[in-house]
Amino acid sequence: MFCLGDISIKVFEKSTKLAPFPKLTRDLEMCSQKRGVSCITFHPGRCTSNIVAPETVISLLQMPATSDIHTGEMQRDAACDNAEKQAAERRNKSGFLCDERGYLDLVEHIIQNGGRKGDRTGTGVVSVFGAQVRYCLRDQFPLLTTKRVFWKGILEELLWFIKGSTNAKELSDKGVRIWDANGSRAFLDKLGFTDREEGDLGPVYGFQWRHFGAEYKDMHTDYTGQGVDQLQKVIDTIRKNPEDRRIIMCAWNPKDLPLMALPPCHALCQFYVCDGELSCQLYQRSADMGLGVPFNIASYALLTYMIAHITGLKPGDFVHTLGDAHVYVNHIEPLKEQLLREIRSFPTMKIKRKVESIDDFQADDFEICDYNPHPAIKMQMAV
């Protein structure tokens, strides 16, 4: 059987026995390439319709390029090419791999093509597995503009991670309540942590960054000098051996997972130095595209800025690699609203004083300039 555009043709000898017709196959392939037909295949014995003699098939080779057989397919190809050109033009206008188009395109792809799945929270998601988006950090900062993102929350949470804290109340006291639900009495009791103080999240991100391998007791214990200080090792390696390919910080500790109120979603990051620039790649096992990912993008971009500052480098790129990238079903309509909004220029980031140590950064050291986002969009957090 030959598939020519939308026509499937089975070729028989006059004796009605199937013949391979190798030369005819080659001619059809050459013809398809000249005429732009995307499908020319040979499948012996699979079709019983449109049975014609070889001479009839040969006459098909002489059909004009504007034949109705493939006009529709050519039109579809042209429409696809036009859409790709328009997408490329949008990317070029916004800058090379440097605006939030990648994020929005991924959200749209998940909503349109993601598989429907259940999830831990019982909310339900549409999800895809494996995605990557890049953000340029040169002279701009990737804080989404199609909705207002909670900058104070991003900044205070990162400083809280760097401190090594696991006490959600420290964030709440500063007006940042993003960990309140996971540290609530009801949530901890549900997980079986009935003896744990409310707000004690267990050995989560900050503990793993600064005390990997230490024995976790509670959120009040002083762990100074215990475990591996991964964050400081990253900084020391960037300073002493910037070409190292093992500049990695990992929050995923299988031994401590049962003690965590929430296992790490952003699990591992790697840093890369080239031409005086520091870049970061994050692997995120679970990516809540509506609420979590905008935070994660800005948080690791900020961490890259901070480490670049104290090591005498310039920020390069942030590469965001996602495992289970999902949209909660109750976020679909809010995200559709966001997709309709015009992208605006990213803001810039200023570090207002010279800081020598990662532990010396304070919230007042950072200034976001020229941030002009669309209004915030309310989405419910799934717990």
TrEMBL record:
Organism classification: Eukaryota, Metazoa, Chordata, Craniata, Vertebrata
What's the domain of life for this entry?
Eukaryota
Catalytic machinery residues: 265
Biological process GO annotation list? dTMP biosynthetic process; dTTP biosynthetic process; methylation; retina development in camera-type eye
Q: In which pathway does it act?
A: Pyrimidine metabolism; dTTP biosynthesis
The alphabetized UniProt keywords are:
Methyltransferase, Nucleotide biosynthesis, Transferase
A Pfam entry, by short name: Thymidylat_synt
The enzyme's E.C. designation: 2.1.1.45
Which reaction(s) are listed as its catalytic activity? dUMP + (6R)-5,10-methylene-5,6,7,8-tetrahydrofolate = 7,8-dihydrofolate + dTMP
> PROSITE patterns, per this entry?
THYMIDYLATE_SYNTHASE
**What is this enzyme's class at the first EC digit?**
transferase
Matching entries from SUPFAM superfamilies are given as:
Thymidylate synthase/dCMP hydroxymethylase
Q: What is this protein called?
A: Thymidylate synthase
Family label? Belongs to the thymidylate synthase family.
Molecular functions (GO terms): thymidylate synthase activity
Thymidylate synthase/dCMP hydroxymethylase domain spans which residues? Answer: 102-383
